[in-house]
Design goal:
Elements (H helix, E strand, L loop, with lengths): L5 H9 L4 H13 L3 E5 L2 E6 L2 E8 L4 E5 L21 E5 L2 H23 L15 H9 L1 H9 L2 H13 L3 H16 L7
Antiparallel strand pairs: 1-2, 2-3, 3-4, 4-5
Helix pairs in contact: 2-3, 4-5, 6-7
């Protein structure tokens, strides 16, 4: 049974760009039996409360994002990597592309649902970027900070690591670490 959400209709009505493309992706997602929700301000389609796909509009394209796309076989080579380790997206620049790919998209969505049913998990690389010395010193010095940092999602950890590492001078990195410590201790990400 398709479960639609009126908030998504409101989102689509207000969309200034990619409205027809997003409506088509919405219909495809609902045809696959997913539940429609609005999460992070975007149409999100779930199976048993697990996120399967998100529809996103960007400047140059709109995309169907597979939350655990790294688990899919991608027999057609259409899934694109971007910043998230687990997710993959398929970009579109017009409705015609979506219509042409509809059967393939449905196969991919059903494969994502099956991966969720099977309980498959993405193996995340823990801290692919090296931890800056200034952060490591504080983690060694303050056990509560280490516990809080380790409890953050890999994406939140990476956000902090990239932010701290971006500073050229050690004193700036140390200052950033000190400034962010209360946020980390609260379990928040850099931009929460």
């Amino acid at each position: 049974m398709n479960k639609m959400n009126p908030k998504v209709d409101g989102y689509l009505r207000k969309a200034k760009k990619w409205q027809e493309e997003m409506k088509k992706l919405t219909r495809i997602s609902l045809d696959c039996g997913l539940t429609e929700e609005l999460k992070w301000g975007k149409p999100c389609y779930t199976f048993q409360k697990s996120n399967i796909v998100i529809i996103q509009g960007f400047k140059e394209f709109c995309a169907l994002l597979f939350c655990k796309g790294a688990l899919l076989k991608d027999r057609h080579g259409i899934l694109k990597k971007f910043g998230w380790q687990a997710a993959r997206r398929i970009p579109f620049s017009n409705v015609g592309e979506i219509v042409e790919m509809e059967p393939i998209l449905k196969v991919y969505i059903h494969e994502a649902i099956e991966a969720e049913k099977a309980g498959l998990k993405v193996n995340y690389k823990k801290n692919p970027e090296p931890i800056p010395e200034e952060l490591q010193n504080k983690l060694d010095e303050i056990p509560a900070l280490k516990t809080a940092f380790d409890a953050l999602t890999p994406g939140r950890q990476r956000g902090y690591i990239l932010y701290f590492s971006a500073a050229k001078q050690s004193k700036t990195r140390a200052s950033r670490v000190k400034k962010c410590m209360p946020q980390i201790l609260k379990g928040n990400g850099l931009n929460d």
